[in-house]
Amino acid sequence: MNINELLQLTVDRKASDLHLVVGTPPSIRVDGVLYSISGEGVLTPEVVDEHLKKILSAEQLGRLSVNKEIDFSLHFSEKARFRANAYTQRGKSSVAFRMIPLEVPVIDKLGLPKILHSFTNLRQGLILVTGPTGHGKSTTLAAIIDEINTNRAVHVITIEDPIEFIFRPKQAIISQREMHNDTHSWATALRSALREDPDVVLIGEMRDYETIASALTVAETGHLVFATLHTNSAAQTIDRVVDVFPEDQQDQVKLQLSNVLEAVFSMRLIPAIAGGRFPAYEIMLATTAIKTAIREGKTHQIDSIIQTSQEVGMLNLEYTLARLVRDGKVTMEMALSYSLRPEELQRQVKPDKI
């Protein structure tokens, strides 16, 4: 198959990803599971290079040659775009494609909690969406941003690497900036954002010290900031943000973070018994108790605060996993494999709780 046929198959099979790796057949990921494409042989370096030449510009091919990896986006058809990363492994080019639907999703249709609607009404603060790669962070943020776009006359700036969902202006003005094509660095783009009259800023990923420091500053200056991190829980997220700073700055960062943070939404997509995947999630809201724990460096208390604060909207991952098991949507074995506290999950699914 040529590259267009492989991408079309990815769309037709409703796969989330397509992998082209030298030495293996082309593979697609469906509902979290990788499958080799039937009838396709092992990929050679020449075939992968030919595929890349069909979809990358000369400038992008040059960057791949120099940097050994490159992020890019690809508009494919009327039904899908792709976010992709071409990279070098064992001296040979490979590429991973992530399919991005052209239609921006809606919060309720994704099976996400209704509390996310309240995030769209905030005027300032920092909201972090966290979880492993491929578990719905970008899709969740797109749904939140599009609800803001639908309901509020504001200026939204997104900084992404690369741009994923394309937003069509409704009530809002949407400025979408892509790394390398529209700006040279995250930190530069975030500094510039403050001079671009934003109301809402979306940061595709808080990757390093400069990006995290800039995100905190943007939130602190009265803007609503959304960002992602590759962390597994709210407590781990707080530690990650603080630990990226030098030790002599960490007390100030804890204070700064406690003042601007509004929520951490940590999520997983769990393979379902009947096919597809269901979201399981942890919700941490920045209540007085949470802010105090952050400010005083007592992140070990965050899990217990979440567990005892369900009445204000907080939920831990085990609660939502247990609900999926009790509703017959996912198996206990699958839920346990995603749980951070398996004993707590087993307690939640006891027969007397069904």
From TrEMBL:
| Gene3D superfamilies the UniProt entry points to | 3.30.450.90, P-loop containing nucleotide triphosphate hydrolases (3.40.50.300)
Molecular functions per Gene Ontology: ATP binding; ATP hydrolysis activity
Classify the source by domain of life: Bacteria
Q: Report the leader peptide range.
A: none
Please name the InterPro entries in this protein's record: AAA+_ATPase, P-loop_NTPase, PilT/PilU, T2SS/T4SS_dom, T4SS_GSP_E_ATPase
Bacterial type II secretion system protein E domain span: 194-208
PROSITE patterns named among the record's database cross-references: T2SP_E (PS00662)
Q: Which SMART domains does this entry report, sorted A to Z?
A: AAA
SUPFAM superfamilies associated with the record = P-loop containing nucleoside triphosphate hydrolases
Q: Which family does this protein fall into? A: Belongs to the GSP E family.
Q: What is the name of this protein?
A: Type IV pili twitching motility protein PilT
Give the classification, highest ranks. Answer: Bacteria, Candidatus Woeseibacteriota
